């Protein structure tokens, strides 16, 4: 008993376009719906499923070959390419596995296969470069020299790939079509299929006399020096895009972009959190008790700050607008000075006597470690239940 095929999805209906819609109309419909149902904009679970359907519809209708399959009643995204039953279907005998394989016989190969000669000129790839900078450079910006090693246009052949005075030749194997045809016997009868030409690699042309400089690629690798302008306020990990400074494409195609990734070196004084700076300053115990004045050297100036009398360990002073300039907009972050109060580790006899006299004037009992029955021993007795 033959099972019924699954109904192909209405990709035109999903995007809300007619079957005669142009590529531009399909693209505009997709962008409009994608903005409406994108998960970042519409968190509704149903909207997320709708967004998946929209992407699937655009994937199919923006591909000429997949769109042809839809127009013939199939579904290129369904298992087996549309799930046609019959002798060639799943579990059946024959050289094909389903509707997709039948379409391969008609149109030549899998999705994205050969359909006429492919261009020798193709866009180039993007490139990325790591650039290490000091905190002062990321804070206030800098024009940094960089060296990049990428593919550039071959100046000998200007990207054509052929030696001077020679030209590309039409491939004799495929006659310039970039594909060769073969006849297959199927349950439908004889079917003509097309595959990429192995002689010209699908280009439809050959290079009898390749350029001696680039060996026919239309590009060569070289090391170049550039200057990149780093804006004030960039952070570690950010990337700066230099348009069309990446790899030149095969055949002299348009160059990709170059991305300069910022890596900020650690500073010996300041640590950075966003646009704020933090540092630690140690002050003597007496200065914290009596109060003092500190001179702080910031990234671009010197600032005087007052430490109030009685300042406790761990206190923080805030200097407004002395941090890193904001990358977007005006103003700067703040500078936070964290105070560490230093207690003397060694005292001579006179210093120790002065401190003890000072403690007595404040009514603070300080037990001597060399004497028994002091403060800590009485605390121990209290825990042990002794009077």
UniProtKB/TrEMBL annotation:
Its cofactor is Zn(2+). InterPro entries: DnaJ (IPR012724), DnaJ_C (IPR002939), DnaJ_domain (IPR001623), HSP40/DnaJ_pept-bd (IPR008971), HSP_DnaJ_Cys-rich_dom (IPR001305), HSP_DnaJ_Cys-rich_dom_sf (IPR036410), J_dom_sf (IPR036869). Belongs to the DnaJ family. It comes from the Bacteria. Participates actively in the response to hyperosmotic and heat shock by preventing the aggregation of stress-denatured proteins and by disaggregating proteins, also in an autonomous, DnaK-independent fashion. Unfolded proteins bind initially to DnaJ; upon interaction with the DnaJ-bound protein, DnaK hydrolyzes its bound ATP, resulting in the formation of a stable complex. GrpE releases ADP from DnaK; ATP binding to DnaK triggers the release of the substrate protein, thus completing the reaction cycle. Transmembrane segments: none annotated. Zn(2+) 2 binds at residues 171, 174, 197, 200. PROSITE patterns: DNAJ_2, ZF_CR. Homodimer. It is found in: Cytoplasm. This is Chaperone protein DnaJ. Signal peptide: none annotated. Zn(2+) 1 binds at residues 154, 157, 211, 214. CXXCXGXG motif repeats lie at residues 154-161, 171-178, 197-204, 211-218. One of its GO terms (molecular function) is ATP binding. The J domain is necessary and sufficient to stimulate DnaK ATPase activity. Zinc center 1 plays an important role in the autonomous, DnaK-independent chaperone activity of DnaJ. Zinc center 2 is essential for interaction with DnaK and for DnaJ activity. Keywords: Chaperone, Cytoplasm, DNA replication, Metal-binding, Repeat, Stress response, Zinc, Zinc-finger. Residues 79-94 have a biased composition (Gly residues). Binds 2 Zn(2+) ions per monomer. One of its GO terms (cellular component) is cytoplasm. Residues 73-94 are annotated as: Disordered. The keyword Zinc-finger applies. One of its GO terms (biological process) is response to heat.
